């Protein structure tokens, strides 16, 4: 495999390994050996070490003394904790948009994402649907103008993607429900209804959490 700019080599290696973890190709508890990754990807061991530190920061692996790097376990408690935290950060981001938008053109990115979500639903393309659900979040960053919040959300996003991937089939059944929630969220943002923003996003986070925990139970 050959890696190229613009991302750093370590970031590209981290992304490659993260995709394998998110899709379940690397199992919880599985050890990640630096030398094997170095040989498999034809990269330096230093870049692999840096990539593993990135993955640890993103909660996909744990690096333990004398045990090395292992894929983290996904438990109901971790899922609930993650959903609770992400819910509050989503609310902060949505509130920033509600406070900051001035003209209809400011909301165009969200309308475009809504159209893509609808198209993905009609095709039953759950992978693109989930990707665009995260793009909603990224479209808010310019309004929030908070690099610490953005960094925290981005570091947690892979863990959320991993949880969502586990529940893909359950989420497919709830795609129409999510579209309805997003429509309500967009209406609340336009109306600058902060109480309704919290209601919608809290419900979304809990619904997502329930789907993942249900999938975790039968996995």
Automatic annotation (TrEMBL):
Keywords recorded for this protein, A-Z: DNA-binding, Transcription, Transcription regulation
Keyword Repeat: no
Matches recorded under Pfam families: FCD (PF07729), GntR (PF00392)
Entries under InterPro entries matching the protein: GntR_C, TF_FadR/GntR_C, Tscrpt_reg_HTH_GntR, WH-like_DNA-bd_sf, WH_DNA-bd_sf
Gene3D superfamilies xrefs: GntR ligand-binding domain-like (1.20.120.530), Winged helix-like DNA-binding domain superfamily/Winged helix DNA-binding domain (1.10.10.10)
MF GO annotations: DNA binding; DNA-binding transcription factor activity
Residue ranges of domain HTH gntR-type in the record: 7-74
Name of the molecule in the record: GntR family transcriptional regulator
């Amino acid at each position: 495999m050959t890696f190229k700019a613009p991302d750093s080599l370590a970031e590209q290696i981290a992304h490659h390994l993260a995709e394998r973890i998110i899709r379940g190709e690397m199992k919880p508890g599985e050890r990640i050996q630096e030398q094997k990754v170095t040989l498999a990807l034809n990269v330096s061991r230093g870049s692999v070490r840096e990539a593993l530190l990135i993955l640890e920061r993103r909660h996909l692996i744990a690096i333990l003394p004398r045990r090395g790097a292992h894929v983290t376990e996904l438990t109901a408690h971790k899922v609930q904790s993650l959903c609770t935290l992400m819910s509050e950060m989503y609310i902060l981001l949505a509130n920033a948009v509600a406070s900051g938008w001035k003209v209809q053109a400011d909301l165009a990115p969200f309308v475009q994402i809504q159209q893509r979500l609808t198209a993905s639903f009609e095709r039953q393309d759950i992978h693109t649907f989930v990707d665009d659900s995260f793009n909603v979040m990224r479209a808010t960053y310019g309004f929030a103008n908070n690099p610490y919040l953005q960094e925290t959300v981005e570091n947690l996003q892979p863990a959320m993607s991993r949880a969502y991937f586990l529940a893909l089939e359950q989420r497919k059944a709830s795609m129409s429900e999510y579209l309805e929630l997003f429509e309500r969220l967009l209406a609340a943002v336009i109306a600058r209804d902060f109480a309704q923003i919290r209601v919608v996003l809290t419900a979304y986070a809990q619904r997502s959490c329930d789907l993942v925990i249900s999938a975790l139970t039968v996995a």
